[in-house]
């Protein structure tokens, strides 16, 4: 599968950009502010900071709208954001170190998308979905500074999300330590499972996520 086909397929299953484009300008800015805060602070904005974008009276409703659209992931009570694709404060197998702060990615594809999306340095600590072997990736923007092992691939089992994508389809977007392991995981199901080299996965993630931070519609 080529990169654009992969971006199109994921957009058909999780249309984050299309959903964002339907928001009011204030809500779009709030969504982008949540993303930026997660990366630069390691936490979502406070309610007071969110109110700066949509007004105090509308902050709670604005957050609910973003949660309903699955642009942000809310806590169990539905009162606070815990994440916004591709970043979350919820512990996942994909730990990110950004400027000495620890945060998480929803999935393997998300993990390799954060550095280029925000033009920052990210150290990823995860593991092979099949073998459990540790995987470490050091990125600066879209550049891979180091990958251990060098043979890492990313596998995606295509599926429609059930509820929040972070808790459903994202669990089947995984790191695999090498091509042999990746082919083993894929088996004969080449229609439902796609495999990507690390470089291709980064390009895929950039195509899917970077438009979310664009100023224009």
Describe, in plain words, how this protein is organized in 3D:
The chain is of the alpha+beta class and 217 residues long. The chain folds into 2 domains: 16-84, Arc Repressor Mutant, subunit A (Orthogonal Bundle); 87-213, Beta-Lactamase. Helices cover 37% and strands 24% of the residues. The chain has 9 helices and 11 strands. The strands form 2 sheets. An 8-stranded antiparallel beta sheet has the order 1-2-3-5-4-6-7-8. β6 (121-127) and β7 form a beta hairpin. α1 (3-13) packs across α9 (198-209). The mean pLDDT is 92.
Structural class: alpha+beta
Helix fraction, binned, reads 25-40%
Number of strands: 11
Strand count, sense and barrel status of the largest sheet are:
8 strands, antiparallel
Instruction: Give, in spatial order, the strands making up the sheet with the most strands.
Output: 1-2-3-5-4-6-7-8
CATH third-level topology of the largest domain:
Beta-Lactamase
**What is the mean pLDDT?**
92
CATH class of the largest domain: Alpha Beta
Ends distance: 28 Å
CATH architecture of the largest domain: 2-Layer Sandwich
Shape: globular
Radius of gyration: 17 Å
* Estimated share of beta-strand residues: 15-25%
Q: Tell me the number of structural domains.
A: 2
Number of separate helices:
9
Low-confidence stretches: none
Order of helices and strands: HHHHHEEEEEHHEEEEEHEH
């Amino acid at each position: 599968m080529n990169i654009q086909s992969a971006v199109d397929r994921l957009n058909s299953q999780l249309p984050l950009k299309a959903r964002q484009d339907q928001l009011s300008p204030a809500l779009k800015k709030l969504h982008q502010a949540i993303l930026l805060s997660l990366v630069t602070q390691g936490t979502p904005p406070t309610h007071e900071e969110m109110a700066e974008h949509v007004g105090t009276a509308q902050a709670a409703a604005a957050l609910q709208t973003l949660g309903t659209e699955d642009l942000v992931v809310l806590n169990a009570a539905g009162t606070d954001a815990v994440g916004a694709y591709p970043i979350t404060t919820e512990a996942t197998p994909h730990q990110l170190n950004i400027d000495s702060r620890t945060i998480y990615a929803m999935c393997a594809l998300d993990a390799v998308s954060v550095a280029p999306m925000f033009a920052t340095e990210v150290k990823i600590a995860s593991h092979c979905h099949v073998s459990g072997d540790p995987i470490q990736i050091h990125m600066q923007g879209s550049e891979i500074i180091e990958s251990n092992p060098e043979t890492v691939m990313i596998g995606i089992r295509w599926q429609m999300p059930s509820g929040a994508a972070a808790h459903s389809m994202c669990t089947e977007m995984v790191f695999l330590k090498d091509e042999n392991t990746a082919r083993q995981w894929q088996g004969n199901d080449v229609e439902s499972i796609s495999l990507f080299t690390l470089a291709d996965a980064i390009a895929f993630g950039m195509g899917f996520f970077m438009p979310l931070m664009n100023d224009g519609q």
